Amino acid sequence: MTDTKKPIIHENHDWLEAVVEEIVEPERPIIDPHHHLWIARGAGDYLLPELWGDTNSGHNIEKTVFIECHAEYRKEGPEHLRPIGETEFVTAIADQSDVGDAGQARVAGIVAAADLRLPTEVLQQVLDGHANAAKGRFRGIRQAGAYEANRDILFIKPRQPADLYLDEDFRRGVRTLGAQGLTYDTWHYHHQNRDFLEFVKSVPETTIVLDHFGTPLGVGPYAGQRDEIYQQWRKDIADIAQCPNVVAKLGGLAMPDNGFGWNLGDVPPTSDEFIDAQSRYYLHTLECFGVDRCMFESNFPVDKWSLSYHVVWNAFKKMVMDCSEDEKHKLFYANAKRVYRL
Q1: Which residues make beta-bridge pairs with 110?
Q2: 3-36: per-residue pLDDT in tens?
Q3: pTM for the predicted model, two decimal places
Q4: What Rg value do the Cα atoms of the chain yield, rounded?
Q5: Residue 6: its pLDDT value, please?
Q6: What's the distance, Cα to Cα, between the start and end of the chain in Å?
Q7: Strands (E), the chain
Q8: Phi–psi pair at 184, nearest 5 degrees
Q9: Fewer CB within 10 A of the end CB, N or C, for the chain?
Q10: What is the 3-state secondary structure (H, E, C) of 34-51?
Q11: Mind listing the pLDDT tens digit for each residue in 148-190?
């Protein structure tokens, strides 16, 4: 069993720099459709200098999409409007990215936070607030469905109730997003995939972005069950892929809660080690969803607790080396541009 009580965040770059690789296909344009920004979360700030430190590490990252992470909410005012503070915080950073040197990644889209269970007129106030704060970058909402009864075993603590996906008020809110051309992002755990499947069938008019493969857990009671969990996960992903309104992000499996233990190693994994351990999740999802409904994501800086930015994108490129140029462009750029309207 992985010992989650041990330190899992490396406080300097020396550990990551123990593995440095030649960049695969360095000229390939990339949109990174999933990263966070925050002040002082465990390993410290992750702001524009830190983001650029990663996006400038060798790959051609042109644009990025920020995904909500409960950062810098307003401290005052109505509770339902406080998440707009996060959008204000990210917009200021995005403005800085727009006037940066040529070749620097631009924060081009924002997926914000809202409680989609709010009455429609109240929810609309939140959506309008995000749109006004984002200065044209607001693309959707993530209210992650993640729930785990054994919450204390997890490094990243989920916030939602067990039945969020089944809540009719929540589903109404997701339909509101679709009616306005906004996306709904989510992440949850492997044992929630069946509830997620029923949910996405109920909201066919909304584009749903599934983050992190439905997060197969590998810690606590799930440690030592990787193959059993994988077999059920395979079936669930195949069924979810039958819903044409769902898009899959390929990434985010290097979180400590996935249980691969890389965050505890003396050195981080190489791209080849990453592929050996995880490619079956990527290739199965790609086979089920097809190249038109998948996009690679970094999930940084969360996955940075396990490996470096240039290594993870090397792994992604190696995994699809046999794809055509058109297919690669979709997976690394065009699909993210289309889904998030960048």
Answers
A1: 66, 138
A2: 434 434 545 678 999 999 999 999 999 999 999 9
A3: 0.95
A4: 19
A5: 42
A6: 42
A7: 29-35, 60-67, 106-112, 138-142, 183-186, 208-210, 246-250, 294-296
A8: -120, 115
A9: N
A10: EECCECCCCCCCECHHHH
A11: 998 888 988 888 899 999 999 999 999 999 999 999 999 999 9
Q: Give every CB contact of residue 9 below 8 A, 6+ residues apart in sequence.
A: 42, 43, 263, 305
Other beta carbons within 10 Å of 111: 26
Question: ω before 301 within 30° of 0 (cis)?
Answer: yes
- The SS3 of residue 215 is coil
pLDDT tens, residue by residue, 216-256: 999 999 999 999 999 999 999 999 999 999 999 999 999 99
Backbone phi, psi, residue 86, to 5°: -65, -45
Provide the token pair at 105. Answer: 């990644």
Write down the pLDDT at residue 1: 31
**Which strands sit side by side in the sheet containing 60-67, from one edge to the other?**
29-35, 60-67, 106-112, 138-142, 183-186, 208-210, 246-250, 294-296
Separation between Cα atoms, residue 283 and residue 288, nearest integer Å: 9
* CB contact at 8 A, 176 and 142: no
Phi-psi region of 104 (alpha: psi -120 to 50; beta: other; left: phi over 0): beta
SS3 of residue 142 by DSSP: strand
